[in-house]
Amino acid sequence: MKVQAENEPYDEINITPMLDLAYVLLVMFIILTTATVQGITVNLPKASAQPSLAESKTKAITITEDGTVYLDTFPVTIPELEALLRQYKAATPDLPVILKADATIQYQRVVEVLDLLGRLEITQLGLVTQAIVK
User: Fold this and answer.
1) pLDDT tens digits along 15-55
2) Can you point out the beta strands (E) in the chain?
3) Residue 64 per-residue DSSP state
């Protein structure tokens, strides 16, 4: 064993405190992760595989390439569309509407539908686009 003078620098690394800290952190990590995973066992309710019979409140307006306007899947004229949307708006004041239009149609047809939605004060409007694949 080497005797060291008081004024010489201490050049040995004591790794015991570092290992103690690592073990404490490891034990805490193990305890915390097993506590969050285990939880309490409960009997969960079963969901039915039947589709919901409730009608979706969102209405879809589609304008095809030839300019035909559809409400959901039924072809309508602009006055018919206005009458139907007015009825739906009376039943559901915050009626959400999505608008799908073919990329090649005349812009005027889309503007007519948007103007109609503005007159009916339908503010929840979504415009459907196709995502660009990169």
Assistant:
1) 888 899 999 999 998 887 776 555 556 666 676 666 555 55
2) 59-63, 69-71, 74-76, 96-101, 124-127
3) -
